[in-house]
Amino acid sequence: MDSKQIDISAIIVTWNAKELTRSCLASLLRSPQPFTMEVIVVDNASQDGVADMIAAGFPSVTLIRNPENAGFARANNQGIAIACGRYVCLINSDVEVPANCLSEMLSYMAANPSIGLLGPKMLCPDGSIGDSAMRWPSVSNAFWRALSFDTIPGISKFIPGALMRDFRYDRIADVEVLTGWFWMVRREALEKVGGLDEQFFMYGEDIDWCKRFWNAGWRVVFFPKAEALHYGGASSSRAPIRNAVEMLRARLQYVRKHHGMWGRIMFRIFLWIHHLIRVLGYGAVWLLRRSSQAAFKVKQSLACLMYLAGSRSNRLAER
User: Fold this and answer.
1) Does 199 lie in the same domain as 85?
2) How many domains does the chain have?
3) Both 82 and 224 in a single domain?
4) How many angstroms separate the CA atoms of 266 and 282, rounded?
């Protein structure tokens, strides 16, 4: 199909999330839309039959079957490489898209040509609003995060924490980072900025991409007039400790890419402080209450500390 004939290319990466992917596709394809759209799914060598389900149940979907888990960034880039739309949407497999969501985003993007990347409001299954915006990692917000000051009610709104606990999700706003659960990207901006950085396997690619959009002169905008339901943890919940380490690894990759030597050193020091405090704090809670959640938090931070302790060999392996 000619790109002039397609408004939106929707790209979904899936890994062992059969039922969630089925729901995501059904929500995208359930009714006619006032725009043209193609849907591309990249399966990262799932073992739950999701690729066969898509081939049998959604014949209009373009399916790419990877022989191995290529990671989030590389798999999305595979979809981007064959996408023909004037706008490209990267949508997580654990998202359900209401009927008017994409049309609202499309209209706003068309009316605001300075926007390169647009993200909708995240609705959670319990009815709450999910966090979908954040600040770029910096030495200062790593310090506040290490001490958990950015989560204290009444204080966090005065602290520029990375998690943006002060952000109100009821207004359109330019933000530094839109988390990578759901993006709409302008084709012109995509061609200027390029695809996701494939050195990021699972996390961090969203922070890096948003940084690159801003550096290239494109706005990154949160758009609450469009909403979508995000279940969360479709893949990461299967190995939460491993994924905490992957997130730490991605943050270090980002800092190495975008910060100088002293920034990298201080960021690493604050990561050590953060996880040491968590081990001591949750360890004390476990001793007093024998809480299984506290025990898990201790294991999680110990795994991160072990990764930090072996960071020299890790850095060499990642080059």
Assistant:
1) yes
2) 2
3) yes
4) 24
Question: What pLDDT, in 10s, does the model give residues 198-252?
Answer: 988 878 899 999 999 999 999 999 999 999 999 986 555 567 788 888 888 888 8
As given in the structure block, the two tokens for residue 284 are 């004390």
- Cα–Cα distance between 75 and 201 in angstroms, integer? 10
| The pair of three-digit structure tokens given for residue 216, joined into one six-digit string | 């290239």
Pairing of strands 115-123, 8-14: unpaired
Question: Could you tell me if 201 and 259 lie in one domain?
Answer: no
Model confidence band, residue 103 (pLDDT cutoffs 50, 70, 90) = very high
The DSSP secondary structure of 65-125, one letter per residue, reads EESS---HHHHHHHHHHH---SEEEEE-TTEE--TTHHHHHHHHHHH-TTEEEEEEEEEPT
CB-CB contact of 191 with 213 (8 Å): no
**CB count, 10 Å around CB of 121?**
19
Is the same domain home to 56 and 107? yes
Per-residue pLDDT at 2 exceeds 70: no
- State the residue range of the domain holding 254: 239-318
For 272-292, how does the pLDDT look when each residue is reduced to its tens digit (9 = 90+)?
999 999 999 999 999 998 888
Tell me the pLDDT tens digit for each residue of 37-80: 999 999 999 999 999 999 999 999 999 999 999 999 999 999 99
Confidence of residue 318 (pLDDT cuts 50, 70, 90): very low
Regarding whether 206 and 105 lie in a shared domain, the answer is yes
Q: Helix or strand or coil: residue 224?
A: strand
> Which residues, other chains included, contact 164 with Cβ-Cβ below 8 Å and sequence gap of 6+?
131, 133, 134, 135, 175
